[in-house]
Design brief:
The complex is a heterodimer of chains A (266) and B (274).
Chain A: H1 7-35, H2 52-59, H3 61-94, H4 100-112, H5 115-130, H6 135-159, H7 164-171, H8 176-205, H9 208-212, H10 221-230, H11 235-258, H12 261-264
Helix pairs in contact in A: 1-11, 2-11, 3-6, 3-8, 4-6, 6-8, 7-8, 8-11
Chain B: H1 2-34, H2 44-51, H3 53-86, H4 89-103, H5 107-118, H6 123-130, H7 144-167, H8 172-180, H9 185-214, H10 217-223, H11 230-239, H12 244-273
Helix pairs in contact in B: 1-12, 2-12, 3-7, 3-9, 4-7, 5-7, 5-10, 7-9, 7-10, 8-9, 9-12, 11-12
Classes of the chains: A mainly alpha (266), B mainly alpha (274).
């Protein structure tokens, strides 16, 4: 006869679980709460209900400009990271090139190296070679940070797909490019899609590289929020932040549709 | 040679970006920290850091905070991941969302949330005041506690995912076997699950430690200027005082500190596998 799990332990676990989930979600819920306040200052629980801060944000050029910059940047990163990442992952998966393991390690290195180090390096290199930093510098930095995610999700999908399909295509007379286009790419598409969502998310939320490369031209949404927090935030910051949270929720739903959340977290 | 043509074309753009925008800048930055303008080896910047009590204090605070943040994340995250791996499908989905939603939300936004919760007349100080534990106008902002509270929330998802990955590969039948052979539940956790999950907990600890030690946004906003950390100091020197050689030297010290931690771990992991 096996001992049952003691009742007190089940209760304690349930209580701890609720507390941890609350702890993880509290900052987000509070921000969303504050954004609906009717008061002139930041307060939680919100005082009264109103959408005035959303109206203010959407009509202020400051925030909409920053949102546009962030959006354009994130879309560019999504396209570039998916294209380069998918190509690299397909080659790495086939292990045809000499030194594949080392190349793979290089591609995944930005996941381990603190981004502050990449940010400082980019700032120094760019300033020495080209002078003032621009949105292009930030694009390059975000691309380096986003590539490993696309490569990882694509590799994960490829490792579970049928390796003989491409071979079959080749023996039946398809050239290498036709095989790539008709067989391999469709095979790894779910992985590329998941990676693309992550790439978008990383670029849209990234603040470290952007802050180091900061110049008047580079005011993305996270930078805008950071600088306001350093000085005197009012509830409009909560409204902007809430809009970013809603976008994240949407992204998670899309990822769940594309590959399934359960898979991504494995 | 035609065998290599397609792979080379596919991988070249990505590889080029990695070399020019990753290897080159990081290499240049490290070399600037130890080479003077004239090109001679020069450790002035490093000694400047290591001989100044102010910066030693900054380094020590960084280490202390990173250790506590990583340790607390391990204590909370490991049991959380175990429940996640063994619970039913619906609860699991809720827990996955609770982990991924914060993970994918900008750190700037989450830190703002903590500023509201921990600041004057925020939720936590108000509750403590209502319980009669603190005086009126008490604020947790600009304390190391605030940094730990904010940063654990930032790194906890990494710990959970890293432990979860390992536990999912543990055979649940091992636990059943232990329990049919007379272990009670807690014993089976300690004798079977904990040793099995240890690699994941260690990886998670190192990941959380290095993230905490190298992150400046949350510590700067929650800790303020009174409690500078190494990463915050690097940011100051890089963007405000524009002392790049010193910023580079501090980055070298940060990297060396992290490597000191990683090398014994990877050696131990290698000897265990082979």
């Amino acid at each position: 006869m096996v001992d049952a799990i003691p009742r007190w332990l089940r209760l304690a676990t349930a209580a701890a679980l609720v507390l941890i989930v609350a702890y993880l979600l509290v900052p987000l819920l509070v921000v969303v709460g504050v954004s609906f306040t009717a008061a002139d200052y930041i307060s939680f629980p919100p005082q009264g209900l109103s959408l005035r801060w959303y109206a203010k944000v959407l009509s202020s050029g400051d925030f909409t400009d920053a949102a546009m910059t962030s959006l354009v940047l994130a879309v560019a990163i999504t396209v570039a990271a998916s294209a380069l990442g998918a190509g690299a992952a397909i080659v790495l998966h086939r292990r045809v090139l000499p030194g594949s393991a080392a190349i793979g390690g290089l591609f995944l290195a930005p996941l381990i190296l603190p981004s502050i180090i990449l940010a400082l390096g980019l700032l120094m290199l760019w300033s020495r070679s080209f002078g003032a930093t621009s949105l292009l510098t930030v694009f390059i930095g975000h691309l380096v940070l986003a590539l490993p995610y696309v490569i990882r999700t694509t590799l994960a999908v490829l490792s579970t797909s049928d390796p003989f399909l491409a071979e079959a295509a080749r023996t039946m007379g398809a050239g290498p490019w036709k095989t790539l286009w008709r067989v391999t790419l469709p095979q790894c598409l779910p992985g590329v899609a998941a990676g693309a969502f992550f790439a978008f998310n990383i670029s849209f939320d990234e603040a470290v590289v952007s802050l180091f490369l900061r110049s008047p031209e580079i005011t993305t949404l996270p930078i805008r929020i950071y600088t306001t927090l350093e000085y005197s935030p009012d509830p409009s910051i909560a409204a902007v932040s809430s809009l970013m949270i809603f976008l994240t929720v949407l992204l998670i739903l899309l990822i769940d549709r594309a590959v399934g959340l359960q898979k991504v977290t494995e | 040679m035609t065998r290599y043509l397609q792979p080379l074309i596919l991988i070249a753009p990505g590889l080029l970006i990695m070399c020019l925008a990753f290897v080159l800048p990081v290499g240049l930055m490290f070399s600037l920290g130890i080479v003077s303008e004239e090109g001679a080896l020069n450790a002035d910047q490093l000694t400047r850091f290591l001989s100044d009590p102010y910066y030693l204090k900054v380094g020590l605070r960084t280490l202390r905070l990173a250790f506590w943040i990583a340790a607390i994340s391990a204590l909370i995250g490991a049991p959380f991941a175990y429940v996640m791996a063994r619970c039913g499908k619906r609860l699991r989905l809720v827990l996955i969302i609770a982990v991924t939603l914060p993970l994918m939300t900008s750190v700037v936004v989450r830190t703002f949330g903590w500023m509201v919760v921990l600041g004057r007349s925020g939720l936590v100080p108000d509750t403590l005041y209502a319980l009669g534990l603190v005086r009126r106008n008490f604020s947790l902002m600009q304390t190391e506690t605030a940094i730990v509270v904010g940063m654990v929330q930032v790194v906890l998802p990494f710990m959970v995912l890293s432990v979860l990955g390992v536990i999912q590969r543990l055979d649940p039948r091992l636990e059943e076997a232990a329990r049919t052979m007379g272990c009670n539940f807690l014993q089976s956790l300690r004798r079977v699950v904990l040793p099995g999950a240890m690699p994941g907990i260690l990886t998670g600890f190192l990941l959380c430690f290095s993230l905490s030690a190298s992150y400046f946004i949350t510590p700067t906003l929650l800790g303020g200027a009174r409690l500078p950390t190494l990463a915050g100091s690097i940011y100051e020197n890089a963007t405000k005082t524009l002392d790049w050689p010193f910023a580079a030297a501090q980055s070298i010290i940060l990297m060396c500190g992290l490597l000191l931690l990683f090398i014994p771990y990877s050696l131990a992991a290698r000897s265990r596998h082979g």
